[in-house]
Specification:
There is one protein chain. This protein is an alpha+beta fold and 451 residues long. It has three domains: 134 residues, Butyryl-CoA Dehydrogenase, subunit A, domain 2, CATH 2.40.110; 154 residues, Up-down Bundle (Butyryl-CoA Dehydrogenase, subunit A, domain 3), CATH 1.20.140; 124 residues, Butyryl-CoA Dehydrogenase, subunit A, domain 3 (Up-down Bundle). The chain contains twelve helices and ten strands. The strands form two sheets. Strands 1, 2, 3, 4, 5, 8, 9 and 10 form an eight-stranded mixed beta sheet that branches. Strands 6-7 form a two-stranded antiparallel sheet. A hairpin with a 5-residue loop joins strand 2 and strand 3. It starts with a helix and ends in a 6-residue tail after the last helix. 39% of the residues are buried. Bound molecules: flavin-adenine dinucleotide. The site of flavin-adenine dinucleotide (FAD) has 21 residues, from strand 1, strand 3 and helix 6.
């Protein structure tokens, strides 16, 4: 660990196998215990980021594997540290372990790190060291993965933000046409940022990326509060809230970060489609985020079938309390108006959940596998609206405290982005509310043969 912390050694998370990505229950890698307490690992892993390179003295793979004879499914998964080079008695780097690079994966984006296929134990000599106890591997991995999910949300929002800033600069610089409808040919061409539709695309990018960053800051703050809280009841409540929000923290920014980058390309017009400009790279890099650390489809299922209902819906009760408290304490007029627009959606969510709680007791429960994304949309849009209203309310309070033009513009921009989110994005979930309220079965009724 000390040498990982200093960067002398690097590490990987080796979960995915060629036939088992979302469903880790099906992994085939095995680990057999030896007399000396170590294990011999055998199996293949794929897509392992940083799986091989010569940038560090050693690479410590955290490998999920099954100990023969253990329980089936995820309950039989254990976690092992498998170094590229074994350590000598004095902890110096020793001989090569039996783990080998079998292929490099060539990716759409994210090219700053190698993506590898690895083979463990081809010669039966792959030493692995059990972490914790046998069969609790996934639980340990999730300890790391839950924070990694917020990191994915952050990363997606940041790349979204980078694309926003890039296209914003371009839009201020690039001139094209005149402002409709009173355009005169003799007028000089205007910067494209003055066109209403370009403002729309920039506002959307701002709303998605700054909204995502603010959401992930809220999630990170929850982790800090959980780690420092001395009141057990509050600690449990915050833990429940974080658990409920984790699928949203991962999935919403990673859905909307690439959308922001897509709009960034559009703002640049033809230039956005060329390699001369970086806008396309942001989109390519960001496109990974809805896929890894649990696909967004899997996050929606986790929210719909587990997180919203666990502990009798405690998480959602706490969230409602937090949102209501915030909305009721607003003292500024514009944010109060936005809060008034959000309130009815809280009621709609409640009605949808009451309806679903009944549907889940019937055979129609299967429809939710097709409609989980719709439920994620409703839930996440409400959470993001709340996150934006929190920002707007703060901005409105601070606006009157400063005469500094730059600060005033910053606060006004926040208020306007919150208005954009509540007026343009939130109402889109009306479709999803209808789908769920009617237990729509179009997706699950579709038969393979009909495609
Ligand atoms: C660049 C990159 C880096 C990566 N880095 C790592 C790494 O370092 N370590 C590591 O272990 N893995 C890594 N991965 C693997 C990544 O975590 C998996 O790609 C991801 O978990 C999805 O698994 P899969 O590719 O097998 O897709 P599948 O699981 O086959 O999924 C394909 C599609 O089916 C859907 N699907 C699957 N199961 C269900 C279900 N039950 N219900 C509904 N829909 C479902 C998915 O949502 C998805 O849309 C990386 C992948 C990439 C592309």
């Amino acid at each position: 660990m000390p040498r990982m912390l200093t960067g002398e050694f690097t590490g990987t998370m080796a979960l995915t196998e060629p036939h088992a990505g979302s469903s880790l229950a099906d992994i085939k890698t095995t680990a057999v215990k030896q007399d000396d307490g170590s294990y011999r690992v055998k199996g293949s892993k794929i897509y392992i980021s940083g799986g091989d390179h010569e940038l560090s003295d050693n690479i410590v793979h955290l490998v999920l594997a099954k100990v023969p004879g253990g329980p089936g499914g995820v309950k039989g998964i254990s976690l092992f540290a498998v170094p590229k080079y074994r350590l000598n008695e004095d902890a110096s780097v020793g001989e090569r372990n039996d783990v080998h690079l079998t292929g490099l994966i060539h990716k759409l984006g994210y090219r700053g790190t190698t993506s590898t296929a690895l083979s463990f134990g081809d010669e039966g000599e792959c030493y692995g060291y059990l972490i914790g106890e046998e069969h609790f591997g996934l639980r340990y991995m999730f300890k790391m993965m839950n924070e990694a999910r917020i990191a994915v949300g952050f990363g997606a929002s940041m790349v979204g933000y980078r694309g926003y800033q890039y296209s914003l600069d371009y839009a201020k610089d690039r001139t094209q046409g005149r402002i409709a409808p009173n355009n005169k040919p003799e007028d000089a061409a205007t910067a494209i940022i003055n066109h209403g539709d370009v403002k729309r695309m920039l506002l959307a990018q701002k709303a998605y990326s700054e909204g995502g960053i603010s959401l992930c800051l809220y999630g990170s703050n929850l982790i800090d509060r959980i780690n420092t809280c001395e009141d057990e009841t509050l600690k449990n409540e915050l833990t429940e809230l974080l658990d409920l929000l984790t699928p949203v923290l991962k999935a919403w920014p990673s859905e909307y970060g690439p959308k922001a980058n897509d709009l960034g390309i559009q703002v640049l017009g033809g230039a956005g489609y060329t390699r001369e400009y970086q806008a396309e790279q942001f989109w390519r890099d960001n496109r990974l985020n809805p896929i890894h650390e649990g696909t967004n489809g899997v996050q929606a299922l986790d929210l719909s079938f587990r997180k919203l209902w666990q502990k009798g819906g405690l998480g959602i009760q706490i969230l409602k309390r937090e949102i209501t408290q915030d909305l009721e304490s607003i003292t500024t007029p514009e944010s109060a108006q936005l809060a008034g627009k959000l309130m009815p959606y809280m009621g709609h969510l409640h009605e949808v959940l009451v309806h679903l709680s009944k549907v889940l007791q019937t055979e129609e429960a299967v429809t939710l596998t097709g409609n989980a994304q719709a439920l994620m949309n409703i839930f996440a849009s409400i959470v993001l609206s709340w996150i934006w209203i929190r920002q707007a309310s703060k901005a409105e309070q601070l606006l009157s405290t400063t005469q500094d033009a730059e600060q005033q513009n910053f606060y006004k921009g926040k208020i306007q982005a919150a208005k954009y989110f509540i007026d343009w994005e939130l109402p889109l979930v009306k479709r999803d509310i209808e789908l769920l309220t009617n237990t729509n079965s179009v997706c699950t009724d579709m038969q393979t043969e009909w495609f």
